[in-house]
Amino acid sequence: MWGVSYYHGVMQPIQLLQRGVLAGCLLCSTVAVLKAQPLVINYDEAKVPRFTLPDPLTTQDGIQVTTPSAWKGIRRPEILSLLTREMFGEAPGSPESMQFKVESESVDALDGLARRKEVTVHLEGTADTAGVDIDVLIYLPAKAEKPSPVFLGLNFAGNHSIQNDPDITLSKSWMRSNPQNGIVDHQATEASRGSGSSRWPVETILKRGYGVVTAYYGDIDPDFDDGWQNGVHPLFYRDSQKTPESHQWGSIAAWAWGLSRIMDYLQTDHDIAGNKVSVLGHSRLGKTSLWAGATDERFALVISNNSGCGGAALSKRAYGETIRRINSSFPHWFCDNFTYYNDREHLLPFDQHYLIALLAPRPVYIASAQEDRWADPKGEFLSGVYADPVYRLLGKKGISAREMPEINESVGDTIRYHIRTGKHDVTDFDWEQYMNFADQHLK
Ligand code: GTR
Predict the structure, then answer these.
(1) Which atom belonging to ligand 1 lies closest to the Cα atom of 27?
(2) Cα separation of 125 and 62, whole Å?
(3) What is the pLDDT of residue 96?
(4) For residue 125, what are the contacts with CB-CB under 8 A and spacing of at least 6?
(5) How many whole angstroms separate alpha carbon 106 and alpha carbon 95?
(6) Residues with CB under 6 A from ligand 1
């Protein structure tokens, strides 16, 4: 069986190469070179390998962590540097020269329901490279009397894709061509307005008292493997450096870093409650929101929608997408050190429950979909379960469930989980749970 048929049901081969298939994802504008090698993708629970998970509450020196201060001072930094070095790669800090520019503002957008702002986060170029602009779109409830809590998430196809609002600036950034969604010759056209709106129920969110903040992920780093020559990476190469070192950031870390730069802006905007920013993302952008929450504790609440392998799903289960498969299809997502674990999940000195533990004690929502077996729903659930002891240590209830809940049932307290009917997507049902969760923890 070749790669294409195992994608989450929406891949279409677009070109046959000598050694592989170049395939495009109809849902999320991805292109992957799927090597023509036999794939063993396991969907059989009986074939999940036996594994032992490392304990988030035992230090590298074998000492039990029994106090919040030992967690904060010793163990959390250990885990953060482990995941940084072995998986996502090290990112630079906040750049010294960064500018925010409000490009447009309206107080009566969406028939008076919203205030809309467009803001550019400008990152300075270097002698060798042009700068990078991240275009941020913000909708806030028009009638808010105090700074609004917001949901911040990157989008797959430009800000204009999240809502059919003719006043949103059409993105000029490079995009994967997708004529069906109005993206022609790598450029968005008017026909692409609102093409992703089913995943962004903006009006419902505004009516519930939350704002929406988004930016196109490709503004930060275009999502294809070019050895990190475009996007933000070259802004930070030192001297004659041409590519990140094996422990330095891949694209997911760059997208997460970009979310932090947007957060830098949000902290300066008096219409936004900077201490009530929930970061969310779907699929690869769910992996991104988890890593953003792990690396930036200003995010008050974190949401992983169908993040799967490299996100919430435990890698050691090797169910659905595996480390080798993700590193082969998307060599630019993680740092090069991560390829060491291709087919060697048993050697991982961590697993994705460590990623969830890094969010503690902040609320985290992990969501799966029943038909999204590629993302391993059970593995996504279990990473929450195995992060629970860290939440308990920090005085939070975490999640008490030990068995997967019923379909469409939301369980847990500070760690919350659901598996809904349907496929790999973001639905109104998902958003309903996220807003209830934010009501519970942030209001
Ligand atoms: C898939 C990838 C998944 C997920 C998804 C997406 O190809 O295998 O890990 O990230 O893309 O982002 O839509």
Answers:
(1) 13
(2) 45
(3) 87
(4) 131, 132, 235
(5) 30
(6) 7, 28, 30, 283-284, 308-309, 321, 326, 329
Structure tokens at 366: 């992990």
Cα 443 to ligand 1 centroid, rounded to whole Å: 33
**Ligand 1 atom having least distance to the Cα of 11:** 7
Q: Does the annotation mark 424 as catalytic?
A: yes
User: Tokens 């307290």 correspond to what residue?
Assistant: 413
The first and second tokens of residue 337, run together, are 């050190």
Q: Pocket of ligand 1, candidates 8, 251, 290, 352: which has the most ligand atoms within 8 Å of its Cβ, to mutate?
A: 8
Q: Closest residue (by CA) to atom 13 of ligand 1? A: 283
Q: Looking at the predicted structure, is the pLDDT value of residue 2 above 90?
A: no
Count Cα atoms within 13 angstroms, Cβ side, for 355. 33
Q: Ligand 1 pocket: which of 26, 28, 154 to mutate (most atoms <8 Å of CB)?
A: 28
Nearest to 364 by CA among 314, 405, 312, 321: 312
Q: Annotated catalytic residue: which of 29, 283, 307, 329?
A: 283
Q: How far is CA 392 from CA 30, 299, 318, 357, 412, in A?
A: 39, 20, 28, 11, 13
Tokens of 48: 């999940």
Q: What is the SS3 assignment for 175?
A: coil
In the three-class reduction of DSSP (H, G, I as helix; E, B as strand; rest coil), residue 423 is classed as coil
Q: Give the DSSP H/E element, type plus range, for residue 416.
A: strand 415-420
pLDDT above 80 for 29: no
Domain extent listing, the chain: 98-442
- Res 13 pLDDT > 90: no
Per-residue confidence at 380, pLDDT binned at 50, 70, 90? very high
Q: Is 283 a catalytic residue?
A: yes
* Tokens matching residue 433: 């749970």
According to DSSP, the residues that pair with 418 across neighbouring strands are 367
Q: What CATH superfamily is the domain 98-442?
A: Alpha/Beta hydrolase fold, catalytic domain (3.40.50.1820)
